Amino acid sequence: MPPARKPDQSAPAQVSPTGVPFEAADGDRDPRGQGGDVLTSPNGVRIPDTDHSLKAGRRGPILLQDFHLREKISHFDHERIPERAVHARGAGAHGVFVANGSAASITHAPVLAEKGLETPVFVRFSTVLGSRGSADSARDTRGFAVKFYSKEGNWDLVGNNMPVFFIQEAIKFPDLIHAGKPSPNREIPQAQSAHDSFWDFVSLHTEATHHVLWNMSDRGIPRSFRMMEGFGVHSFRLVNAEGESVLVQFKWTPKLGVHSLTWEEAQLAMGTDPDFHRRDLADAIEAGAFPTWDLGVQVFPDNEEQTYEGIDLLDSTKIVPEEMVPVQTIGTLTLTGNPTNYFAETEQVAFNTAHVVPGIDFSNDPLLQGRNFSYQDTQLTRLGGPNWTQLPINRPQVPVNDNHRDGFMQQGIPTGETGYHPNSIDGGSPAPAEQGGYVSVPSPVSGEVVRGVAASFDDHFSQPAMFYASLSDVEKTHTIEAYTFELGKVYEQSIKERVLGVLANIDTELVTKVAEGLGLPVPDGTPAEHLAPSPALSQITGESFPLDGRQVAVVAGPDSDLAGIAALRTALDAEGVQLKVLAARGGKLGTGTDQQVVERTNLTARSIEFDAVVVADGAPEDGDIKAVVLLQEVLRQLKPFAAWGSGAEVLTAAGVSGPGVFTGVTVDDVVADLVAAMGQHRVWERADLVTASAVPPAV
Which SS3 state, helix, strand or coil, does residue 319 take? Predict the structure, then answer.
């Protein structure tokens, strides 16, 4: 795998929480809190020796008066904060959101409505179940949280890479997470849903069925954070300048397309590069391949029923297909900067679904209502108190005068004599805003006080059935394999049978093939009637996508066509693709102007790192077992190949042939086909051959 990079010494000395350089006057205190070239104590006293304790004689006991020892050790003892109960494993980046102005008719929030307005953002991607030390490529839901540093205050759009959630009510969230987390007796398995308690819970709460199907599909193992959709999950209310309101659901669409890992790639990544996704994100940004998403909304009437064509807009386990209500693009997000410090930014960033700005309001979605309490509450413990919004990464870029006082982690020094309202001593400051203040949408509320949900929440199967029917044959096969694997890890027979009973209410093919894989009888069921299949739910669209940030390996040796490799590098650079020379050992190939640096060796490379493999003319034909394994893995992972000259013989010797394998006399003969195939992400025509080769012969 690639070696660790040294810190970028060319980075600006002072960077704001949003990646924008500070414009501090000479002599101002460094806003990062770490400035100057001389070691000091926390109170600024210069320290001449940090390697030896203060002792009574060189062999004597340590003295309590050694304040530097006590401060250094005490700070180390307390430098870890509790990790998030969920979404602990994360990666972040700075960027900018630009509104295109088309949302002006539905909201007066400038962050969305003002054409051309650039709003700094910080985005955090994450897995849900795993600890901070878990692997990136586990099958799991991914968090997609965006903090907009808007000119009207911070707005947090806290979503996932799936538009639906496991549960309909926040009161079940502790149960869901307790079921998904490692067992309390053994603390295993880590970052996996393939165990009894998870499947016990979701089979007893069939409202989870839709989300589980998304998780068992390829959506559960995204190729990259850069190639992942994001959804706000809930229905939100937007209000325009005339006071008119609509309900909307937010969606982030990546310009690079929506792509996933194969199961084999996910497993390899866990062992060879558990930081696969965070490395991919950081490397792409560092290389200038800035990830980009369009923000879109589905817009619905804000009627009394809060439904659309019979679909309950307050039920977070359901979607409205895009074919029924198209997504309207209202702006674009681009990530342009990596964090300067992981802890200060990615770990300390804190989101709150209740943080909205004028023009954005809430619906009565019971899951959203509960999250509005939970996100604020959790920061009190994790970040040490009520002043977590004062941390640099969480701090709004507008004046704040909230009249709050004191508390743990108070960063400011409040002035004035009062902390109450109204007052006359401080001239009535701060006074309520006469203009531009946040006003909730007036809406009537009535009904009996009851613990329950509307009858429309009771349909748990029609939308999962629609989702499965919308998948391509390849995606259906992967989903079946995921269910078979996960349930194969479950010990209790009754839980497996209960899950099969749920699947019988979704699709006959799905339950039959999963039951066969488990060696269990197929239960009776009545597959639910569903809406027409939604092509937007399939990741395999036939569309070609940009290649920014992709990586290609070229297998080479001392006798290879180095001029051809240089030409290949130039052609791929033009597509935003990085070429890595792969050889048996490190160093350089050739001499003079054609010289090529070996960036990967057979010991440091693995198939998951590359989106395609090219074999150069003159590459070694001795069949190095590690190189052969890499080529065969890439074949199974449905990635494109190319070779020119004698390189084609290397592919043949490794058993690489069929769709997506391009050969020619010169490098120019294969470049165009290779680029076109990479734009499709995978060589899907090869999928049946790979699946067939994995099935054991009948006995």
Answer: coil
